[in-house]
Amino acid sequence: MNSALNTFLFSVYPYLCLAVFLMGSLARFDRDQYTWKSDSSQLLRAGQLRWGSNLFHIGILFLLFGHTVGLLTPHFIYSPFISAQHKQMLAILSGGTAGVICFIGLTLLLHRRMFDPRIRLTSHRTDLAILAILWLQLCLGLVTLPFSYADRGDAATMLSLAEWAQHVVTFRPDASFLAAVGWPFKVHIVLGMTIFLLFPFSRLVHIWSGFASVGYLFRPYQLVRSRRMNLPSARRKA
Fold it and tell me: Of 11, 20, 2, 9, which is closest to residue 188 (Cα–Cα)?
């Protein structure tokens, strides 16, 4: 990959996507709250929706949590308990399983959207586009598994990816960490950042509501006191 392009994609593009992700979400919530929803079509093909949605959400939540913890946890924190090689094998096995589960669920959802005429007519083009992009991203993630397995001896790729991610979140971007990383990982990273870029303009914004519902569980109790009506004296006598 060209050096200038490599620097832009892995040192500048992450912050561009993050800025649009945060500011775009805030602007949409402020200006278009009636579009802040997932546009459910659960009355049509409910069985396929139930299986697809459950499998997709179980898989994607595990993958998001695994990527976040795996990439952003410094090596010195987990090295006393598990080696980098064993951590990579754990990531391959658990991430691969979750990826397959998520892939099956998303394929069901995408098939339902594309091949049911009634659902397709009521779907926005952005709905189909974001599902297709997520499906492609999952495929790329599964493609990286054989490369990760081949690199299990020294776990160099995993450590390079983690170093790059940790430098990005601490505002010390350094694209050189990805210089020797294989193309599937780079395309997977770029498409993943692009999903964050498209997030505010798609139905994915309803994810924020999921986080808000967690905060709802810890809300303080609402005190409700009864209040006796102060009726006029004439009415009280009556």
Answer: 9
Q: State the Cα–Cα distance between residues 157 and 155, nearest whole angstrom.
A: 6
Of the candidates 63, 46, 153, 53, the residue with the CA atom closest to the CA atom of residue 100: 63
CA dist 177 and 110 (Å) reads: 35
| Residue 123, phi then psi, degrees to nearest 5 | -95, 140
Asked whether 17 and 190 are in contact (CB, 8 A), the reply is no
For residue 7, the tally of other CB atoms under 10 A from its CB is 16
Number of H helices, E strands in the chain: 11, 0
Q: Is residue 173, in this structure, part of any structural domain at all?
A: yes
> Along the 238 residues of the chain, how does pLDDT read in single tens digits?
688 899 999 999 999 999 999 999 999 888 877 676 666 565 556 777 889 989 999 999 999 999 999 999 999 999 899 999 999 999 999 999 999 999 999 999 998 888 877 777 777 788 888 899 999 999 999 999 999 998 878 888 999 999 999 999 999 999 999 988 999 999 999 999 999 999 998 888 878 876 666 665 666 766 666 665 555 554 544 4
Q: In this structure, what CATH number is given to the domain that contains residue 119?
A: 1.20.950.20
Q: What letter represents residue 1's amino acid?
A: M
Nearby residues of 211 by Cβ (< 8 Å), 6 or more positions away: none
Instruction: Classify residue 37 by its DSSP letter.
Output: S
Structural domain includes residue 152: yes
